[in-house]
Amino acid sequence: MMPGMGIKASDIESAVDDTQLARMEAIVLSMTPAERKDPKLLNPSRKHRIAKGAGVDIAVVNRFIKQFEQSQKMMKQLPGMMGGFGGGKKGRFKLPF
């Protein structure tokens, strides 16, 4: 079980498809380092180049970028959902590393 999520690890493993992971990896590897750092740089011509390099349709690249942006938003909200852990109260918890 993932803490606080109510999801079993076996459910996640069965939901992840190896072909999808390979496709995502191809998309990321088709990007330049600057595009990886800042996805806002991706205009339609860059998306077309990435799709061509990864061997997928432009819609797949758009979907991947949208999923990435949604996961970024969720990760920013995560500290607030975890009871303020790391939410600006530095020094509150001592970590072993």
Description:
This protein has 97 residues and is mostly helical. Helix content is 61%, strand content 0%. The chain has helices at 9-15, 18-29, 33-37, 44-54, 58-81. Helix 4 packs across helix 5. The model has no long low-confidence stretch (mean pLDDT 81).
List its traits:
mainly alpha, extended
Blueprint (SSEs and pairs):
Elements: H1 9-15, H2 18-29, H3 33-37, H4 44-54, H5 58-81
Helix pairs in contact: 2-4, 4-5
How helical, in percent, are the residues?
A: 55-70%
Indicate the multimeric state: single chain
Give the termini separation: 24 Å
Query: From N to C, what is the helix and strand string?
Result: HHHHH
Brief overview, please?
This protein is 61% helix and 0% strand.
